[in-house]
Write a structure and sequence with these properties.
308 residues, 14% strand, 8 helices, 9 strands, 2-enoyl-CoA Hydratase, Chain A, domain 1, seven-stranded mixed sheet, alpha/beta
């Protein structure tokens, strides 16, 4: 918006007479003096001022209109925000964060996997947002790596220290996904949600017979006896089997101990690693309520209100 005002001292009447101004050169009739009035060269004629005199912009008028328009825009935005706020009353103040797919560390986020950094960042952002009263973690995952679960748990605990965190399970929330869910303030699941599956598994594939049949040969040079442990070109040795079992046992012990510390669960009900239906999980205290995402949102709002 141009708010420039002519500066003082600049002459306002500097117009040069345009071509077509009539000059009185009428030839006088007999008896007249014969003098004809001719304007002197270089004398500028001032054009007639507009009716009512010259119009000058009022000092500060541009800024005044700028602020009027700005205030109007703020008012309109406020009305739109208010309308949105009340039209989404059921989710007002609730942040829904999705943890869907196999859990891995990092920033993966596609149809198959979800990264711990993605989920963790969203949990922390929601925890620090003053407009968020509670968080719902929507879980639909078969699990993933123990390390990914542990990274997400740290961020979930940070969020839980500031506001309620509720889990809503979809099709499944098993293994490492339940590991994370156990740290929430409350867990919702559907009657046929697959949950639990608490345990650790390490798979080894051996295609050495197929390779031998097809004529493939692999030569390995290694620095230690277990450096190529897990290669598909040979079966694992008895010594490697014992070592792998120790790693799995230690990881499982950490897993199950953590879950039991968070939930009133009997170890004997879950240490076989089986999948448990949502309806049965209620009885075993793996889940708190039967309900869908909307029920979890309502429960999160109730928790937030109870803590005010």
């Amino acid at each position: 918006m141009d708010t420039t005002i002519p500066s003082e001292g600049i002459p306002r009447d500097s117009a040069v007479p345009s071509m077509g101004v009539a000059i009185d050169n009428t030839i006088p009739s007999e008896g007249e003096t014969g003098q004809s009035t001719v304007p002197s060269e270089g004398i500028a004629r001032d054009p007639a001022p507009p009716p009512g005199g010259p119009v000058h912009p009022e000092p500060g008028s541009g800024k005044k209109w700028f602020f009027i328009i700005l205030i109007g825009l703020v008012f309109i935005i406020g009305l739109l925000a208010t309308a949105y706020y009340f039209s989404h009353d059921e989710q007002r103040g609730i942040s829904v964060i999705r943890m869907e797919g196999t859990m891995v560390t990092g920033q993966a986020a596609d149809a198959e996997t979800i990264g711990s950094e993605v989920v963790g960042r969203e949990l922390r952002n929601a925890a620090d947002d003053p407009m968020v009263e509670a968080i719902v973690l929507r879980v639909n995952s078969p699990g993933g790596t123990p390390a990914a679960a542990q990274e997400i748990i740290r961020d979930l605990e940070y969020a839980k220290s500031k506001k309620p965190v509720v889990v809503s399970m979809g099709d499944m929330g098993t293994s490492a996904a339940y590991y994370v869910s156990a740290h929430a303030d409350k867990i919702y699941a559907n009657p046929d949600t697959f949950t639990a599956g608490i345990g650790v598994i390490w798979r080894f594939s051996d295609i050495s017979r197929w390779m031998e049949k097809e004529g493939f040969n692999v030569s390995i040079v290694k620095s230690g006896s277990k450096k190529d442990m897990g290669t598909t070109s040979r079966p694992i040795s008895d010594e490697e089997q014992i070592y792998a079992q120790k790693i799995v046992n230690d990881s499982f012990e950490n897993f199950v101990t953590d879950v039991i510390s968070q939930r009133p669960i009997a170890r004997s009900d879950i240490d076989d690693g089986r999948i448990i239906r949502g309806a049965d999980a209620i009885r075993l205290h793996l889940v708190d309520e039967i309900g869908n995402l909307n029920d979890a949102i309502g429960g999160a709002k109730a928790l937030a209100e109870s803590r005010r």
